[in-house]
Automatic annotation (TrEMBL):
<feature type="domain" description="S1 motif">
    <location>
        <begin position="68"/>
        <end position="129"/>
    </location>
</feature>
<dbReference type="InterPro" id="IPR036388">
    <property type="entry name" value="WH-like_DNA-bd_sf"/>
</dbReference>
<dbReference type="GO" id="GO:0003676">
    <property type="term" value="F:nucleic acid binding"/>
</dbReference>
<dbReference type="InterPro" id="IPR039566">
    <property type="entry name" value="CvfB_S1_st"/>
</dbReference>
<dbReference type="InterPro" id="IPR040764">
    <property type="entry name" value="CvfB_WH"/>
</dbReference>
<dbReference type="InterPro" id="IPR014464">
    <property type="entry name" value="CvfB_fam"/>
</dbReference>
<comment type="similarity">
    <text>Belongs to the CvfB family.</text>
</comment>
<dbReference type="Pfam" id="PF13509">
    <property type="entry name" value="S1_2"/>
</dbReference>
<feature type="domain" description="S1 motif">
    <location>
        <begin position="142"/>
        <end position="205"/>
    </location>
</feature>
<protein>
    <submittedName>
        <fullName>GntR family transcriptional regulator</fullName>
    </submittedName>
</protein>
<dbReference type="InterPro" id="IPR003029">
    <property type="entry name" value="S1_domain"/>
</dbReference>
<dbReference type="Pfam" id="PF17783">
    <property type="entry name" value="WHD_CvfB"/>
</dbReference>
<dbReference type="InterPro" id="IPR012340">
    <property type="entry name" value="NA-bd_OB-fold"/>
</dbReference>
Amino acid sequence: MIQIGKVNRLKIVKQQGADIYLGSETSNKVLLIDRLPPNHEADEELEVFVYVDTDGHLAATTRIPTAQVDEIAWLPVVSVNYVGAFLDWGLRKDLLVPFSEQHLDMQVGQSYLVKLFLDDKSRILATTKINRFLSETSTDFKVGEKVALIIAESTDLGIRAIINQTHWGMLYRNELFQTVTPGQHIDGYIKQIREEDLKIDLTLHQPGYKKVASVTDTILAKLAANGGELQLSDKSPPEAIYAAFGISKKVFKQAIGALYKDQKIILDKTSIKLVP
């Protein structure tokens, strides 16, 4: 079955003059709008993006857009007219956000988080009203689970992020030791599901023992490469620790505590040293 607004793998089923049609044994024929080189073969499979053209017919292109239907993406506005705003999504025809699907009036040159969807005529549109597609709460995620995040917006508490295209979560400002930007795709982890309201707290650092174990190896390697000493300790500012290892101060303290317990390092107020 052909999926409109998605990437499909279709065969060349017919060539009529310069026109090439794609499909499968059970699907309708889809006009390929691109011109292929002359050495293509009958029944050759192509990876194409399928959409409905202005005449209501199925069409396909080998150009793959930035986002597909049912996905959320950070896209720039390239023009605005009497029907709405148009976004650059990597195809020749820009993506429409009708005025009725704009939370606030969209401005040329600005980028927005939008969700792509099909209207009742199977045309691909986008909306900035993404809250109706996202849940604030969940009991399905596991603490420590790795998730795909899209950075959304800054709040007084921290940064809201979209989890796996389906849920909202929070990255707390006092636990962020790196710069993130709206629209950025980044891996994160489930820190906790809050008991009082089932909302989701996030972290960019893998929680638990496995993370600490991998950090201890990194610290030992860096000590060895720096003559057995580093000017960092459990008293160092979080920013300095993150700059050196890309981890939070909490994880760093856990790691050097484990190394000290194993008698692999010596601790003082300003540095750590390898045990001779």
